[in-house]
Amino acid sequence: MADELSGSSLSQAKLSERTKPVERWALALRALARHVPSARAALGRLLPRASHGFGTCVASARRAKAHRSTDQVKRERCSLFLTLLFLLLSACRTGRPAGEAIAPLAAPTAEAATARLREERQNFRGMRSLMRVRATTDGKTQSFRAQLAVFDAQRMELIAYTPVGTRAMTMTADGDRITTDPEVAPASFDFLRAAGLTPAETAMLLLGLPPNDELIVEMTPAGPASTTAGQIRVVFEPPAFPAKHVVITRGTDRVELEHVEVVREN
Fold first, then answer.
1. Using the 8-state DSSP alphabet, how is residue 104 labeled?
2. Proportion of the chain in helix, strand, coil states, percent, rounded to 5
3. pLDDT surpassing 60 at residue 17
4. C-alpha dihedral, 229 to 234 to 198 to 151, nearest 10°
5. What is the pLDDT of residues 113-131, one digit of tens each?
6. 231 phi and psi, to 5 degrees?
7. What is the pTM of this model?
8. What's 76-101 look like in SS3?
């Protein structure tokens, strides 16, 4: 009977590798009940309990699998989001100016500082600054990050960035000619022309380097403190070269520059 029981059980219950132990046990009990009549009554009471337990195990397993699948999907989505965010920030971040760091001016007297800056101007080979700009014009205020590059007394470039670090506008000047991409109203750069200097010379001044000896500059041992150029008033807070914080006023218009990093062109 043992051989018959074994053969009958195996032929009727071809279990896959994923069949749970409880299921194999229940099938074996059913096969045993067909060959041992005296066990049928007891098995009739036992099998429903086993079936219920088996069903509970299957339901629990399915819930666990679904829970694991949901967590896995969340982890994969989070990982993808972080990867895309990193790539976006890497591609769009505001670039730091490339060049040689400039040591702050520390002359013994204001006269010595003037001589040092005159020498700096004679050997000028370009400067760059990453800065924060706060501009108030006609009662409207805008704040943005920008990079200023002055190549010489005639040529300069200003790049304004969006909040996420992409280019919003590029302004270039060659002599008195100003071009922008995209095009903006010419009046946007009136303060550059109002100084009576080329835009590049005005930019040099805003970096803390007087572009010529004609300007009357209040000088300190650390650098310029203030000056008036044409229709604009420029105040350095504190006096320094390279400049740190600069306030430019023209009538009711006001522009504040915070130089985050200033370098000399290599």
1. P
2. 40, 30, 30
3. no
4. 140
5. 999 999 999 999 999 999 9
6. -100, 5
7. 0.66
8. HHHHHHHHHHHHHHHHHCCCCCCCEE
pLDDT surpassing 60 at residue 112: yes
Assess contact for 97 and 85: CB atoms under 8 A: no
218 close to 226: Cβ distance less than 8 angstroms = yes
Task: Give the C-alpha separation, 260 to 98, whole Å.
Answer: 13
Q: Alpha-carbon torsion 9, 11, 17, 23, what sign? A: negative
Phi, psi of 212 (to 5 degrees): -155, 175
Residue 233's beta-bridge partner residues?
228, 249
Buried b (16+ CB within 10 A) or exposed e, 26-58: bbebebebeeeeeeeeebeeebeebeeebeeee
Instruction: State the amino acid at position 91 in one-letter form.
Output: A
Token pair belonging to 29: 């009990």
Q: Where are the alpha helices (DSSP H) in 145-220?
A: 190-194, 199-206
Task: List pLDDT tens digits, range 176-202.
Answer: 999 999 998 877 788 788 999 999 999
